[in-house]
Amino acid sequence: MTEAKRTPLYKTHMKYGGKIVEFGGWLLPVQYSGILEEHSAVRNAAGLFDVSHMGEITVQGPDALKYLQELVTNDVSRMAKNQVQYTPMCYLNGGTVDDLLIYKHDEDNYLLIVNAANTEKDFNWTKDNQSRFNVRLDNISDQVAQLALQGPGSEAIMSKLTNEPLQNLRYYWFMPEVQLAGKKVMLSRTGYTGEDGFEIYCRPEDVEYLWEGIIEAGKPLGLLPAGLGCRDTLRFEACFPLYGRELSADISPLEAGLDRFVKVPGKKFIGSDALLAQKTCKIKRKLAGFAMVSRGIARAGYRVFALGRQIGVVTTGSYAPSLNKNLGLALVETEFEHHGEKIAVEIRDHHVEAEIIRRPFYKRKGK
To answer: What's residue 2's pLDDT?
Structure first.
């Protein structure tokens, strides 16, 4: 059995009282002060996450753009320099290899940010499909550490540590080289919580210093260190997909409701024929959001019923702290995906009443 990996901040998590769990082959904090407290801090002030477990793959060479256009479902040709793009990456049958972020440095130089548990699989997939292109691929995950500062107070905290005009950095854009607390970093206005925030890429040897600097700068503004537990409740409220739940080799991005990131018809890429067929022939199942009407919390894997038969399965279910409701996401037969449909979730052999509601469950106010 492979031993779980540790990020460069493992000892720092222990110092701050982090409760460590194994996640995707990594030892990471699930919480510090508590999931609800950390969730509230991100929604109302700021939270700091260690996301150094995420994978980083560089794509460089004269065919980099042509290669990525074939590899992923979104339209990479529309990206400007220093822009970030979200995209699924698919198998030939339309199932999802992963969902990732693309950072464009130049026409011949891109950085892919992939999910931690998928890093090796994704890197092998990218190599398996590069033979017709003049590109060089490198897995640089061990050379990069990453922090995510999320919440409405993020810009004020970061502005204490850099002279860069952060108010000019738009959502899903990045600054390739920034001095942050005296250290050179790459800084993007991205995140996985539904709040404004930044993701900070740095050398592993600098990440502990930056963590401590950000924590110190953020204390007066209510910043808390935050773990995987609230990261999941936050992304769930914003209805961001989690690979292995809302996306997988057996779930296409169209089934997951990510249509706007899948450019069919329009361009050819791995899986485009299968996805076009799905779109043309009407998808048989779709991701839907629901609220529990009767008491109970739905969990991943619970069966969903309507009209006396099973019509789907829960992908994520949880108490939503910002909304004070028990909510869920489920893959259901398409005819039941619409707002107001009555369904039932099987919880401990009982059918508990629920209702389909609109997504996302939570949207931030303001900028």
So the answer is: 76
- Report phi then psi at 248, rounded to 5: -170, 180
Low-confidence ranges of the chain (pLDDT < 70): 1, 366-367
Q: What pLDDT sits at residue 282?
A: 87
Residues 86 and 101: their CA atoms lie apart, in Å, by 5
β-strands 223-225, 46-50: how paired?
parallel
- Tokens at 61, concatenated: 């060479």
Share in percent of the chain as helix, strand, coil (round to 5): 25, 35, 40
The domains found in the chain, sorted by start residue, are 5-51+144-237 (3.30.1360.120), 55-142 (3.30.70.1400), 259-357 (2.40.30.110)
Q: Give the three-state DSSP class for 165.
A: coil
pLDDT tens digits for range 88-98:
999 999 999 99
pLDDT of the residue at 78: 98
User: Which two structure tokens, joined as six digits, stand for 87?
Assistant: 């995209």
Model-level pTM?
0.97
Q: Residue 301 corresponds to which tokens in the numbers above?
A: 């894997």
The DSSP symbol for 3 reads P
Q: What pLDDT score does 353 carry?
A: 98
Q: What is the pLDDT of residue 1?
A: 58
97-136 per-residue burial string, b: 16 or more CB within 10 A, e: under 16? bbbbbbbbbeeeebbbbbbbbbbeebbebbeeebeebebe
Q: What SS3 class is residue 215?
A: helix
Instruction: Name the 3-class secondary structure at 210.
Output: helix
